[in-house]
Amino acid sequence: MLRSLRSDDERFKALHFRPGLNLLIADRTDRSADTDSRNGVGKTSTVELLHYLLGATTRKSSLWSHKALSRHRFRLVMDWPRWEKPVTIERRPASPKIYLQPDVSRHPDFHHPGHLFEDALAAEVTLKDWQWVIERDLYRVTSPDSPVSGRTLLSFAIRRVDAGGFLQPTSSFSGQSPHEAMISLSHLFGLDVGLVTEYRTLSQQDATRKKLVEATKDPVWGKIVGRSAELRGEITAVEQRIAELREQIQRFQVVPGYEDLRREADALDRQIRELRDLDEVERHNLQQMVRATTDAAEPDDRYLEQAFQQLNVVLNGEVRRRFDEVRAFHETVVRNREKQLREETDRLERRLAEREREREQLGQTLASILQTLNQGGALDALTSLQSVLAREQATLEALRNRFQAAQTLEASRREIEARRLELESALADDLNDRAEITSEVSRLFNVFARRLYGQTHNPYLAFEARKQRLDIETRIDADGSRGIHNMVIFCFDLTAAVIAHRHGRGPDFLVHDSHLYDGVDERQVSAALQLAADVMADENMQYIVTMNTDDLRKAEAKGFDPGPHVIEPRLTDQPDGGLFGFRF
Predict the structure, then answer these.
(1) Residue 411: predicted pLDDT
(2) Distance between CA atoms of 155 and 169, rounded to whole angstroms?
(3) Which helix (H) or strand (E) holds 282?
(4) Mean pLDDT of 331-348
């Protein structure tokens, strides 16, 4: 049970709790003006402070981000399972450590519950270690790897209005996964946590599958997985390339001096091309020579005599003799030029014939070398082929993995649906096997609800195995107002707390914020407080509830006696009357 809540700040209103029902009251004082409000006096802050000391993770927007609180220490004193003396839990916003006195993280031997380590000194532990100690000792979680979360379990024992804790009976904060909630409730009620956890696993797998299905529709991401039909065709093509490469490698012969032969072949090829270029030039020269030979002839001088005759000039013998000598000289020049042209033509024809023979010889040599090269290759060529083969094999392996993923993706929906049906059947069988447990829970909820609303109603709490998850349905047959809804949560939490405590799966305290009683009829407020007082006394438990004086007076008017249950001090709406002793 919780013993006290303190701070090193002298202004803080230290709270002292006792077994049974504890009423933390917020009063209006005689000095209160119409503008004074009891909102902010510390009712909800008490709930937040309990969570903070019991391992809550702080947020920047939380109560503990205020500078006014950062330098102070806050302490919770409470009983601890299998320890004779209470444990003091201390924490301050400026430090990441939790101070424990004694060090309950070193738990006494469970086989000797009365034994106390006298040398169990105080210790500072990390937040993560403290959360595990809470799971281990308050909720009897057997392993840190368990899917059961101590923080989630505490959120059912101490609901927070700011976190949406009063929205649904079977969820303790807004946005909570139904699977996470069912895992925690299965632990509290004594159901098979393993089966409920499998529902969460299937839900996660299905969510991943849906994301992948959407991703395959994207032109870029679709290439990561793809469709099995397309991948099957790609795999066939790559397998064919691999077969061809393997065949080439098997036939491949490494030629000694391959590079020397290749260089020789290149030189021969260049030489042959150079000879062809020379032939082209000399063939052109030969054509010019032939044309020049045809044009070489003595010029005709008879036109001169005709010209002189027309001029009536008669050539004398001396002129005619000189003219004959010139003609003879020209005839000699023409004959010599014809001879030189014929000789040059003959020389060009011989050189062309010689180069033709040389090209034939070089071509034969080149053909022989090329045949040798075609029959094999160099070692680096073989290595290159093997490298290409390795890359293709890697591509094939990647395609096969994608093909397997695509097939898995396409088949996963059917497999998930089939597994869900199997799980639904297994959970239904398990609920039948645990009928004694579920009957105890349902009976207790029914008793509590009828204490509030009378014997004419038939409230129920039912467990049902569904395809998607375990479903816990709570209902009080009434008008469905907000007040009724809140009392369903009250009865549900009271049932869960009692069942878990009876069977050693939960602590002996339950805490509710005053918001739970908003909109509740005064008769039900009175009945709920009296029910809580009776149940806590019978079960040796503790119920702490914050409440405004107005709501308490309504319950008192209906016969509830708050006197034995109100704890001191009472909070007020004055600036120094709140939990922290000042407004911030």
Answers:
(1) 63
(2) 12
(3) helix 258-295
(4) 73
Q: Which residues are CB-contacts of 106 (< 8 A; sequence separation ≥ 6)?
A: 117, 120, 123
Burial class (CB in 10 A: 0-12, 13-18, 19+), 66: exposed
Q: Which two tokens stand for residue 307?
A: 């010209």
For residues 226 and 215, what is the distance between their CA atoms, to the nearest angstrom?
A: 9
Distances, alpha carbon 347 to alpha carbons 283, 293, 295, in Å: 12, 14, 20
Helix (H) or strand (E) holding 510: strand 509-512
Q: What is the pTM of this model?
A: 0.68
- What stretch of H or E contains 458? none
In the predicted structure, residue 570 carries a pLDDT above the cut 50: yes
- Does residue 533 contact residue 560 with C-beta atoms inside 8 Å? no
Contacts of 544 (CB under 8 A, 6+ apart): 2, 17, 22, 24, 509, 510, 511, 512
Q: How confident is the model at residue 556 (pLDDT cuts 50, 70, 90)?
A: very high
Burial 86-96 (b: 16+ CB within 10 A, else e): bbbbbbbbeee
Joined together, the tokens standing for residue 327 give 């003609």
**Positive or negative CA dihedral for 222, 225, 226, 230?**
positive
DSSP codes joined into one string, 109-171? PTT-TT---TT---EEEEHHHHHHHHHHHHS----TT-S--HHHHHHHHB--TTTTTTS-TT-
For the record, the structure tokens of 534 come out as: 């009776």
Region of residue 512 (left: phi > 0; alpha: psi -120 to 50; beta: else): beta
Kindly indicate the confidence band of residue 338, based on its pLDDT and cuts at 50, 70 and 90.
confident
Alpha carbon distance 105, 108 (integer Å): 9
3: closest CA among 42, 50, 48? 50
Residues facing 445 on adjacent strands: none
Nearest to 501 by CA among 16, 81, 152: 81
pLDDT per residue as tens digits for the range 58-111: 876 567 777 878 788 999 999 999 898 999 999 998 888 999 999 998 855 543
Could you write out the DSSP letters of every residue in 179-246? HHHHHHHHHHHT--HHHHHHHHHHHHHHHHHHHHHHHHTSTTGGGTS--HHHHHHHHHHHHHHHHHHH
| CA 61/CA 59 separation, integer angstroms | 5
DSSP string, 135-152: HHHHS----TT-S--HHH
